[in-house]
């Protein structure tokens, strides 16, 4: 990998200037030796900046795609849970309706059973909705935290690129002191460059596993809510059947 300091000594006495606005003069490198040397060094630095740009864009695309998929998974889980809730409530309603049809002669006395059933179902639905909401909230908070951590090295890389451009321009415009300028200002930036690339390379490894674990935790949370809902609805049906049986027994004596 090219580094800024690799060519520092050859940059001594060279600096970059631009032609006046709207002139026919082509932009050129003014120097004490040859323009080719300066041009080569600028190309080397530009290659580093190009690599930073490509790496950053690649990671941004990866992160955005990954979290877009995670968001889809959350939305799909919500739709699935809503569908399950609706289906289970419909089945319960049918079971209880069939129970009530068998004892129409005691319809007035069964009002207490029906009211109790409706109240229990309302509570079960609310409990389920709150649990699903908590599952989703925890998943979203965790995903946002993971994404925020991913964006830190990406933002650092973007800032690094801007700083290097600025410092490079300053150094190339420092007449007769380019080497010293690069040594003083760029040495730390080269170290930072390697650190940022290392962090960027770690994003897929760490983030993929964290996102997958988060989605699994959310799915497990939903499944537990489904299990509790099923248990509650089954108990409600049993209580309703018992209520109806008690009334039937009362009228049969």
Protein model, in words:
The chain has 253 residues and is mainly alpha-helical. It has a single domain (4-252), classed as Substrate Binding Domain Of Dnak, Chain:A, Domain 2 (Up-down Bundle), CATH 1.20.1270. The protein is 81% helix and 2% strand. The chain has 3 helices and 2 strands. The protein has helices at 35-101, 111-172, 178-252, and strands spanning 15-17, 28-30. A two-stranded antiparallel ribbon has the order 1-2. α1 packs parallel to α3 (178-252) and α2 (111-172) runs antiparallel to α3 (178-252). The longest helix is centred in the last third of the chain and has 75 residues, at 178-252. It is rod-shaped and about 110 Å long. It starts with 14 loop residues before the first strand and ends with a helix. The model is unreliable at 1-34 (pLDDT under 50).
Question: How is the topology of this model organized?
Answer:
Elements: E1 15-17, E2 28-30, H1 35-101, H2 111-172, H3 178-252
Antiparallel strand pairs: 1-2
Helix pairs in contact: 1-2, 1-3, 2-3
Brief characterization of the structure:
The chain is mainly α and 253 residues long. It has one domain (4-252): Substrate Binding Domain Of Dnak, Chain:A, Domain 2 (Up-down Bundle). The chain is built from three helices and two strands; from the N terminus they run E-E-H-H-H.
């Amino acid at each position: 990998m090219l580094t800024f300091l690799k060519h520092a000594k050859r940059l001594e006495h060279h600096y970059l200037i631009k032609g006046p606005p709207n002139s026919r003069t082509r932009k050129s490198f003014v120097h004490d030796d040859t323009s080719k040397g300066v041009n080569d060094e600028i190309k080397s630095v530009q290659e580093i900046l190009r690599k930073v740009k490509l790496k950053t864009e690649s990671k941004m695309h990866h992160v955005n795609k990954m979290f877009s998929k995670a968001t889809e998974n959350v939305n799909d889980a919500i739709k699935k849970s809503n569908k399950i809730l609706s289906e289970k409530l419909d089945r319960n309603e049918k079971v209880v309706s069939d129970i009530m049809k068998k004892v129409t002669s005691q319809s007035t006395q069964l009002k207490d059973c029906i009211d109790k059933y409706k109240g229990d179902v309302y509570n079960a639905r609310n409990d389920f909705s709150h649990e699903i909401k908590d599952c989703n909230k925890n998943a979203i908070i965790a995903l946002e935290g993971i994404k925020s951590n991913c964006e830190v090295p990406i933002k650092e890389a973007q800032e690094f690129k801007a700083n290097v451009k600025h410092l490079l321009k300053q150094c190339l415009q420092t007449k007769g002191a380019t080497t010293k300028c690069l040594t003083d200002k760029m040495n730390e930036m080269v170290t930072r460059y390697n650190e940022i690339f290392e962090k960027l390379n770690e994003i897929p490894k760490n983030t993929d596993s964290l996102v997958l674990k988060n989605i699994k935790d959310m799915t497990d949370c939903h499944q537990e809510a489904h299990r509790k809902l099923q248990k509650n609805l089954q108990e409600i049906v049993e209580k309703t059947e018992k209520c109806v049986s008690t009334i039937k027994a009362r009228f049969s004596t």
